[in-house]
Amino acid sequence: MPEIVKALPGLPDFHQIRRLPPYVFEPIKKKAAELKAKGVDVVDLSMGNPDLPLPAHVMDKLIETVRKPRSNRYSASRGIPGLRKAFAGYYQRRFGVRLDPDREVVATLGSKEGFANLAHAISAPGDVILAPNPSYPIHAYGFIMAGATIRHIRALSAEEYLSGLGRAVRYSTPAPIAMILCYPSNPTAETVDLDFYKEAVAFARAHGLYILSDIAYSEIWFDNPPPSILEIDGAKDIAVEVNTLSKSWSMAGLRVGCAVGNERLIAALARVKSYLDYGAYTPIQVAAAAALNGPQEHVDEVRDIYRARRDTLVDAFGRAGWSIPVPKASMFAWAPIPEAWREAGSMAFCQKLLEAAGVAVSPGVGFGEYGEGFVRFALVENEHRIRQAARAVKKFLSDKVS
Question: Please, are residues 75 and 281 in contact by the beta-carbon 8 Å criterion?
Fold first, then answer.
C-alpha cells in the first residue's frame, strides 16, 4: 500500500516530513551497509552505538524479572517508583542535587524520546527556541516537529554559544521561550564548568527562558567530572535535564533514561507521555534501577575503555597525517576535515573516505550548518580496529596529495 500511495500523482507531501531532512546518519549508514553486503570490511566510527556488554548484575536482574509473569503487564509511563527513586538517588550521590521522585523525575525511553516529547509538551507553533549549532539533531528537530521555530546560534565552543545568546534574544520576534544546552556536547565533545551554568541560569532568568539541558555523557569524562545545571541555586525554577543509561551503562538498546528538574516542565512531559506510552518494559526499568543502585565499577571500566580508544585514535590518526583534537569527555571526537579535502565539504568527504578507505565517520554538516568543515568520530570500535582505520586513512590522504 505505501508504494501505491507514493506512486499516485498529485498527492502533497506530508507537512511534517517536508520539514525534516534525511537523518544525519542515514546516507553514510546506507552506503556502509551496501559495502558490507559486498564483503568490504568497514571500520564504522559513524554512529554512537555502544559495543560494550551490560554489567553482569544488570543482566541477572533483567533475566530474573523477565521470568515473572506479572512483568509482562503494562508498566507506568512516568516510570516505576523504584526507578524514579533510583534516578533521584543517583543525582543526590553524583551532583548533590535533591529531587522528589514523584514530582521532579520522569523515566523516559532514552534521552532522545524524553527530549522530543518535552519539546511537544512545552512549545506551540510559532514559539522561538534558542539552540546550539552544531548539535545533536533532536535538539532542534524535536521542536521543529512540534511547530516551533529554531534560532540557531553558532556553538563550536561553549563560550561562543553563551556569547551569542544575547544577540539572539534581541533579534528574535516573538521573544524566545527556551534555550538548549548539551554538555558534554554531542558532537563537539566540549565540556563546561559550574561558572558556565551560573551564567546560563542568570541569563535565562533575566530573559524569562526555560533551560533544557542534555547531559547524556555525564559519566564519560577524561579530566574532570561534568557538573549538572541543577547544582546551581535556582536552576530548578527554570531548568529540566535529560540523561540516559545508554552509554555509561552500555544499555543503548534497552532505551531507558530520565528527565529531572522543574516540577511544571516535568508535569507537562508526564501528561504528554501518559497519552503516548506505558513506559519501558518493566524488566528493563527494574534492571535500570539495579544499574543505578548497584556497584559502579562498570561505569569506571567503560570510561577507561573510551579513554584508551580516544588516545589510540588521536595518536594513530596523528601519525597518519590527520590531527584530531583531544576530547575531554563523551564517546566522540570532533575534528576538522584534512586541508586537502576542505573544499569538498563534510558529506562528500565522508562518502569518499568510506568508499576509498572503508572508514565511516559522520559529516559535521549533519549536526547543523556550522558543523560544516568537520567530522565526528564515534569511539565504538576497539583499538586494533582504530589503528586499522588509521592505516587506511594514511593511504587515502597520501593518494589525494600525490
Answer: yes
The architecture in CATH of the region 56-293 reads 3-Layer(aba) Sandwich (3.40)
In sign, the C-alpha dihedral spanning 30, 139, 151, 133 is: negative
Show the DSSP H helices in 221-374 as ranges. Answer: 263-276, 282-293, 297-319, 346-357
Mind listing the pLDDT tens digit of every residue in the chain (402 residues)? Answer: 344 445 456 556 777 777 777 776 788 888 888 999 999 999 999 998 889 999 999 999 999 999 999 999 999 999 999 999 999 999 999 999 999 999 999 999 999 999 999 999 999 999 999 999 999 999 999 999 999 999 999 999 999 999 999 999 999 999 999 999 999 999 999 999 999 999 999 999 999 999 999 999 999 999 999 999 999 999 999 999 999 999 999 999 999 999 999 999 999 999 999 999 999 999 999 999 999 999 999 999 999 999 999 999 999 999 999 999 999 999 999 999 999 899 999 999 999 999 999 999 999 999 999 999 999 999 999 999 999 999 999 999 987 655
Give the CATH number of domain 2-53+298-401.
3.90.1150.10
Q: Which of 251, 228, 191 is nearest to 49 (CA)?
A: 251
* Amino acid at site 353: L
User: Domain ranges in the chain?
Assistant: 2-53+298-401, 56-293
pTM of the model: 0.92
Q: Are 389 and 359 in contact (CB under 8 A)?
A: yes
Q: Is the separation of the CB atoms in 382 and 373 below 8 Å?
A: no
CA atoms in the 13 A half-sphere facing the CB of 170:
5
| Residue in this structure with the C-alpha cell 506510552, named with its chain if needed | 277
Q: Residue 334 is placed in which grid cell? A: 570532533
